[in-house]
Amino acid sequence: MPKFQDFPLLALRGRVVFPNTTLSFDVGRVISLTAVKYATDNGSRLFVCAQKQSEKDDITDEDIYTAGTVVKLRQITRLPGNNLRLTVEGIFRATARQVRKENGTFIATVEEIVPVRGDPALEEAYFRTSKEILKDITSTDGKLSKEATAALDKCSDPEEFANLAAHHLQIKTAQKQELLECVRTVDRLKQVDKLLNDELEIMRLERKINAAVRQNIDKNQKEYFLREQLKAIHSELGDDGEELDELEEKIKAKGMPDEAREKALKELSRMSRMQTSSPDYNVLRVYLDWMLDLPWHEQTNDTEKLADAVKVLEEEHYGLEKIKERITEYLAVLKRTGGMNAPILCFVGPPGVGKTSIASSVARALGRKFVRMSLGGVKDEAEIRGHRKTYVGSMPGRIINGMKKAGSINPVFLLDEIDKISSDLRGDPADALLEVLDPAQNATFLDRYLEVAYDLSKVLFITTANSLETIPAPLLDRMEIIELTGYTPEEKAEIAKRYLIPKKRESNGLKAGEIAISDRAVDAIIDGYTMEAGVRSLERRIDAVCRKAAVKLADGEIKKVSVTERNLQDYLGAKRYERDGGALKNDEVGAATGLAWTSVGGTTLTIEVSAMHGKGDIMLTGKLGDVMKESARAAISYIRSNSATYGIDSSVFEKTDIHIHVPEGATPKDGPSAGITMATAILSAFTKKSVKKSIAMTGEITLRGKVLPIGGLKEKALAAYRTGIRDVIIPADNKKDLEEVPKSVRESINFIAVSDVDAVFRNAINGI
Ligand code: ADP
Q1: Theoretical Cys-Cys bridge with 83: which of 79, 277, 336, 598, CB 3.0 to 4.6 Å?
Q2: Computed over its alpha carbons, how large is the radius of gyration of the chain?
């Protein structure tokens, strides 16, 4: 083959033809059509090369690259508008050495570009890596067509591979041109390698971007589809979202504070994305029911006139003058301040004295709703503050529960038995209660279940307790204590006649004319069937009487029943308590009756002592607190040091063991007050002289035999009175407290005020 050959030149816009490849393109310029004509007349070969600037129409030999490809015309198709579609096949690369214009076209004198082969190992290495990359490209599903990758894969000649790759790769014309001009095979392979690598990288990036975009679209689409599906499911099941719409309306109309409403709507939207049968759906449903059932702004109006409020209090409770007076003051202040910073009332007293019922009267007096919550045995903070709704079956705490029951945001809320809360590992309920009762915090009380703040600031809290001892100090600090003491039998009788009997008659469905309980029968019930500070058992006994009466009246044969002292046994069975003038059956040696003040009111307390042969040990059993034990030791020491006065041989103490026992179960609130009772029983045991059964006593003893004052005199006096004791020894310093003791009790009990224990012995022990 001659070194130089002439071919008509065809300038291509933006395309480069490589040997061993076929390319189709359209031509329309006159100069191009002339070249094609020339070629078809002279062996169908053309020299094609790219224009440096593809948009240029009129070109000179300066405007084209010198390197191009000699091609064979494979097909010519005429197109409308004097255009031709050519299909050409590249034969070899060539450089135009000279270009001349001849008969309206360019004729190029070209020289073949012969590849320069180098180190075969290096060539092979590039060749192989290129093929590897190609595999990745194929698997990445990129822009290289399947045919292209297949052809490349099949190709075993490095030169041919470079041509094919350059043909198929989507690269710039300049890059293609560079590949075309490159003479050394290894350089061409190197370039192909790099281009393939770039291609792979671009493909990966594209994929990544595509995935990200798709993900975004997918998410929106998915949600849309799911919602549509859910709608379809709902309508298939017959519940076409009406429930949710209804809930939404209710939430919006409920008048919740912003935070609560937003929370409710958020949960509703979560719910709308769930299937109605899913457990979570139900959890949210229950939650929303709570939110909707709770009062958020509903409020009752307080009774206008204070006088009307006071009337309610008067009507519903007998006696309790001081307490009613205090409550009246409280209500008056409450009306003025609107409840801001009002102290929390705490009613303290034995069971059944009317603490709960007076609290509910306060609610009625004010015209407010009343809710009661017992704190007895509450150990877990969650009972006050609720469980998170993530727990199965969780619920709001008792406070929120109470508010739901109340149905208004300003009820009277009774926290019963506040002295009975205890704490364990699960948190201290007292802390939660503090938050509830603290005006600085309770406007935003946070129940764990609700998860939104609830306003308790308009609630009027009242608490009750049997004893102040076990109330945590910070709670006690917040409260104003109002003490209710036990009732005398006379007061109980009045309460029974005016309140309990009518109440029980009614609750058992009896008419006023159908039952009569005589005054003496009432006294007999109090005396023989109850032993309490309050009137709870009395209420129960009256209830029992009314029930029996209802049975008797059931047949209609009898029109009226009369309950008298004589026939009382028919209704209540045998008497339970005998008042035979003392806690002891007879005058006894080594036993004495004390009076104790306990959380359930006053009670009698029999102390037993036995002195037996031994080594001078002291044994203490029964319910004895540490304070009582110390009193016992003080009493023994006093008697030992004054043994001569009472005719006891002082050596006896070393040979005698003393056993002191307190059989009554009740734990006294004031331990040391049993001091003189123990001393009396001990002296009686040593002297073998009996203690009078009709006497009871209370007083603390010192080592030198002084009698110190005690607390709870009124309760103790009432207890002595209930038991039928007529003589009561009290410390001289307590004489002033006798004023508090009801007149009827004062009139029937002989109070003996003493300042030293010797006087106790002389009054209580026969023959001293
Ligand atoms: P507490 O809460 O102190 O244990 P409650 O309030 O339950 O006592 O009272 C027990 C019963 O006795 C109630 O039916 C109550 O109405 C009645 N009661 C107690 N004190 C009086 C009183 N002073 N007047 C009228 N009823 C009373």
Answers
A1: 79
A2: 54
